Amino acid sequence: MMDTLEGARHVTQTRYILIVAHTGRADSLDAAVRVSRQLQTAGIMPVLYGDEHAEVRAAAPDLGPIALLGHDVQTPELELVIVLGGDGTILRAAELTRGCPVPLLGVNLGHVGFLAESEREDLTETVTRALARDYTVEERLTLDVRVKVDSEVVYQTWALNEATVEKASRERMLEVVIEVDGRPLSSFGCDGVVMSTPTGSTAYAFSAGGPVVWPSVDALLLVPLSPHALFARPLVVAPDSYFAIEVLERNQGVGVLWCDGRRGYDLPRGARVVVRRSPEPVRLARLSEGPFTDRLVHKFNLPVSGWRGPEVEVGTP
Description:
- By secondary structure, this protein is of the alpha+beta class.
- The chain has two domains: 5-140, Rossmann fold, CATH 3.40.50; 143-277, Tumour Suppressor Smad4.
- It has helices at 5-9, 26-41, 51-59, 87-96, 123-131, 204-207, 292-300; strands spanning 16-21, 45-48, 67-68, 78-85, 104-108, 118-119, 136-140, 143-149, 152-159, 162-167, 174-180, 183-190, 192-196, 220-225, 235-237, 242-247, 255-259, 263-267, 272-277, 282-286.
- It is globular, with a radius of gyration of 22 Å.
């Protein structure tokens, strides 16, 4: 049996699977240990990142070799990322692997876990299918986000779910003007503006009253937050359109940009946030080809009692 990572490298072409887990939670730490053992038994090298590597090692000292991402293994060498947690953990995994086309396979250990593909009780079967490469890969549209001040780009990032321009202080509204494809649409005071992908339409934009957009639809969404205006409805535009939000000079306060709730940037008066489709999607591993409607019903526990099914025309099977 191999005792060292270097020894394992020289036997065959090693397959590397990254495990991303919320190891601060006991159930997630236990799941990371279980997945590591299952991968090792199958001859796959588990990979962990940062403190999670040390925490899993401490929880199970008898584990075999585990590679450390960024030291033993680089992101382009990864075959797959198994994500153990909720949507927040999947967003962290997407951030960690940005710039690499490795797919993410989520196992929900949280609450809704809309981006996850399976539940905690299916963990062993999920890993078994990952080992057999028994999954398809779905690409999800992402956002390119830029902040300009005096026509100069001062900050650039991306988002899988949404980019949100929000007021920085709770006691004052944020005065903004909305622009679509280089033309002004409306200005108003509000708590903020959510610019979302179809993936994010079931996240913050959904909570703000925006429409649910099927992930197979290429589109961008804009949803105002508590707008003080007669016309401030949610918008859905083509994927090659772009939004811009200007923080007006007449504001008494300032704003803040948040992307996926993880990356923030302060917005001074006069700042301009431009959001368009990114050329780089996020890739999600899928274990089933079930319709998105079924996922909505399952994740939100929607009532469908009384449904009789689609009508069948006479003469059809």
